[in-house]
Structures are given as structure tokens and as C-alpha cells.
């Protein structure tokens, strides 16, 4: 059992949870809880840590998973040190990052539909800062049939513990890539026959007036400032989400869900 918070392995895991640079350099991220571990692709699981308390109450199935990965037992103090949550569940794992390609983002990971339902459905995110928003977009995107997500370098780190928790496992199934220049990527999508729609308050037509059964990408901008003019102008169309009352703008994750589920509805016929 590892009982010292000064242990080198413990320090390294702590760094993965706290520093994007450490995660990037070693190509890993942290997950917590048995549910996430069950969903993690086997080949991506690098290290697993567990407390005696958790093992004592775990089901036989969970114990089998833990021992299959050679789980290392740690003290409660060490688990508290490594975990990002205030009340750790007692299981933590180091996961290898998977480097998706643009082709995988376009084609999707878990799409088994055919015809119009299998056409690319993308989210293009520019400078999304809130980890909860970003994680929610992955989760709702998976539910709506989004094939992949394209992020600007100015977005939050998708591998931060807060984002990972918000995805509820979708991090393992939703292809994504970061790009240097979002507006250039939007133009490239156009050359691939993908219609691009910028969620924008200057839109003249409501979001439900467009046809999303064809290859589609929705552009969602920063929570406070929206899309940059360069990126918005690169889109095929502006789309507006009509709002009543005195609401001036829509939460970024909510906007993404509204648009992608409208596309999902249309594709179901």
C-alpha cells in the first residue's frame, strides 16, 4: 500500500490532475470512480489506484476489473491528495489520451445509422472557457448523434478533471481535435461539402428554418463574447435561437444542445 503523499508516483498523479502541461507532456488524464473506469477503453488504462475501504465494499465484478488492471492500494490520505473531488469515491485511474484525426471527427465513433442520419454532424467550439459547459457539450453531443467536435486552442483543456467529470463517460466516445485557426477550419469544412451554421444574435432566420439532414456543423462561441467576427463570417449562415423575456443570450452548452437535437430530430424524419 502507498501511504506517503511524498511518493513520486503520487506526486506525478497529482500533477496530472492540476497541470495541463503535465497531462500534455505525458499524454494522459485522470478519471475518478468505478463508472468511469468501467467505460474506459481497456488499452487506454495506464494505472489504477484504489482504497481498502472501496475494495471492502466492492462487488465481485468491480473487484475483478480492479485486479485485472493491477490496481495499486493507497491510503485514504493519498487518495484525497490525488483526487480532484472533495469526497473521492475511492477509485482513480490514469488514462492514456487518444489522438483523433479530422477524418475520425467527421466520420464519428459510435455512429451506426445509415443515410442522412450518418451524415457528419459537428460542433465547432471557439474559446469555450467553462469546463462544465465543455463537458456538457460532449455529453449532449453524443446523445444528439454528433459525429465529432472541433475546438480552438483557446478552449478549456478537455482533459481537465472538471471537464472529464462533466462528460459522464462521453470523453471515451466523442472524437475531437484542437485546431490552430478555427476560421480556416470552417472554410475547409465548406470544401468538404459541410454546411456551417454560426449561432449568432444577428441571425435573421430561426434555427428551425434550416435543413440539417445534410452534412452540418454548428459554430458556438465564447460564453461572454460569442464567436469572433472572422469565424462567424466564415460560416455558411447565421442562425438565431429566438428568446422571450429579457434574456440577451443563451448559455453556450444549451445553445449547442438545442441546435444538435434539432438536427437529430430532422434526421429521424
Kindly list the characteristics that best describe this protein:
single chain, about 270 residues, alpha/beta, six-stranded parallel sheet, four-stranded mixed sheet, 10 strands, about 40% helix, elongated
| CA gyration radius, whole angstroms | 20 Å
Note the main sheet: 6 strands, parallel
Q: Tell me the structural class.
A: alpha/beta
Q: How would you describe the shape?
A: elongated
Order of helices and strands: HHEHEHHEHEHEHEHEHEEHEH
Uncertain runs are: none
- Average pLDDT number: 94
Largest beta sheet: strand ordering:
7-6-5-9-8-10
Helical proportion, percent range:
25-40%
β-strand percent reads 15-25%
| CA(first)-CA(last) distance | 56 Å
Number of strands: 10
* Tally of individual helices: 12
Description:
By secondary structure, this protein is an alpha/beta fold. It contains twelve helices and ten strands. The protein has helices spanning 8-18, 20-26, 34-39, 52-57, 60-68, 76-82, 102-107, 131-144, 161-167, 182-191, 229-234, 252-268, and strands spanning 28-32, 45-51, 72-74, 91-96, 121-125, 148-152, 176-179, 195-199, 216-220, 237-239. Strands 7-6-5-9-8-10 form a six-stranded parallel β-sheet, with helices on both faces. Strands 1-4-2-3 form a four-stranded mixed β-sheet. Helix 8 runs parallel beside helix 9. The longest helix is centred in the C-terminal third of the chain and has 17 residues, at 252-268. It is elongated. The termini are far apart.
